[in-house]
Design goal:
With 253 residues, this protein is an alpha/beta fold. It is built from 8 helices and 7 strands; from the N terminus they run H-H-E-E-H-E-H-E-H-E-H-E-H-E-H. The protein has one domain: Glycerol-3-phosphate (1)-acyltransferase (3-Layer(aba) Sandwich), CATH 3.40.1130. Helices cover 48% and strands 15% of the residues. Helix 2 crosses helix 3 and helix 5 packs across helix 6.
Length: 253
């Protein structure tokens, strides 16, 4: 029964915030979108986490400086990731999402009005055009773009192969890549489930990786390097979590 009410409350909350957020954005003509849109998204993300009884701690939040252009990548293994990333988005942030999300009732319109980047995973040429448009916005508005290099949710604890979209965006914009590592979300809400178990998730924001000089020739090495960084950091965070579970005196951030 708890799961039913969690699912119902999540939809009601999401649609409610979507209606209010869309209305405010339209009434203000998008003039305050740099600060207003991330505030709407953060409110949605934190509300959804509260309904799921999921708490989150963030390490390295200072690496998400709201005044600089950057690409924030994150590992994606759970539906919770959407709420987690939304909950930490600073001013001047948008997210890159799959094009299909535009057609979600109310929520799709809200994401559009909040400036989200919709990517067509079935049409690489169209996706590149959308990335080029996002690049211009990044340069003009000093935007942070959140994007999952895996492209979709992993079915296991293992990372999926990294796609090239985030890296093409880095090449076109010259923006650094800030790795955002999420640990614990998969266990609370695996892909086979509609609802979450209560619990705690840790997010670790690593230092920016410069992308100056990144090209089509060096792209494969950068993709492999970033994916290895995620594997190493996730292994470290999981080991820390196991140690804390075995020794209650160990307190994680």
């Amino acid at each position: 029964m708890r799961r039913f009410w969690q699912l119902l409350a999540s939809w009601v909350c999401g649609i409610g915030i979507g209606i209010v957020g869309s209305t405010i954005t339209l009434l203000t003509l998008g003039l305050f979108s740099r600060t207003l849109s991330p505030w709407i998204v953060r409110t949605w993300g934190r509300s959804m986490l509260w309904l799921a009884r999921v708490t989150v701690s963030v390490e390295g939040a200072e690496n998400l400086d709201p005044n600089t252009m950057k690409i924030a990548t994150f590992n994606h293994g759970s539906l919770l990731d959407s709420f987690l990333i939304a909950s930490i988005m600073p001013s001047g942030s948008v997210a890159a999402v799959k094009r299909e999300m535009f057609y979600y009732p109310i929520l799709g319109l809200t994401m559009y009005l909040c400036g989200f980047v919709f990517l067509d995973r079935r049409n690489s040429a169209r996706s590149r055009r959308q990335m080029a448009a996002a690049c211009k916005r990044m340069e003009r508005d000093k935007l942070t773009v959140f994007i999952s290099p895996e492209g979709t949710r992993a079915k296991t604890h293992e990372l999926l192969p990294f796609k090239k979209g985030a890296f093409f965006l880095a090449i076109d914009s010259g923006a650094p890549i800030v790795p955002v590592v999420i640990d614990g979300a998969f266990d609370l809400h695996p892909p086979s489930r509609w609802t979450s178990d209560p619990g705690h998730v840790r997010i670790r924001v690593l230092k920016a990786r410069p992308t100056a000089g990144l090209s089509a020739e060096t792209l494969p090495a950068e993709i492999a390097s970033l994916r290895q960084l995620y594997q190493d950091e996730l292994a470290k965070m999981r080991a820390e979590r196991a140690s804390a579970a075995a020794n209650p005196s160990v307190v994680l951030a």
